[in-house]
Amino acid sequence: MPRSWVYEHPIGTLDLSVQHLGAHLVVCISGSDVPHIGSVVLATPRPSLSGSGASATSSVLNRIGHKDEFVGRIVAEVLASQLDTVVCCVCGVHKDDASADQIAACAPLGDELAAFLLERIPHNTA
Fold this sequence. Notes:
It is globular, with a radius of gyration of 14 Å. It has one domain: Ribosomal Protein S5, domain 2 (2-Layer Sandwich), CATH 3.30.230.100. By secondary structure, it is α+β, with helices and mostly antiparallel strands. The protein has helices at residues 69-83, 100-105, 109-118, and strands spanning 3-9, 12-21, 24-32, 39-47, 54-62, 87-94. It starts with a strand and ends in an 8-residue tail after the last helix.
């Protein structure tokens, strides 16, 4: 059964949901003025190339002209590496006539959402 939350951000209200598929996760991030599918990111955990810790490798599908990857990729890769599971993140956030300040506020959004979700997703996803 999916779990869902609302995340308030300067760009608008975002809807977050997480569905477990066995040990894997599907994360959906949508909202603000026009929820949609802008990007799909699939992240797979792996050992860090530095030799210590964990990381993730991801593949991305973007719709033409969409920038949602910049949020979705961070969320997928952080969750995959921290939870040691495959993560698919579907992301679509759009704000009509976004101001420069609202756009700048989106720079750390992927990290903010990843931290928000890590506090709420059990680390034993199996």
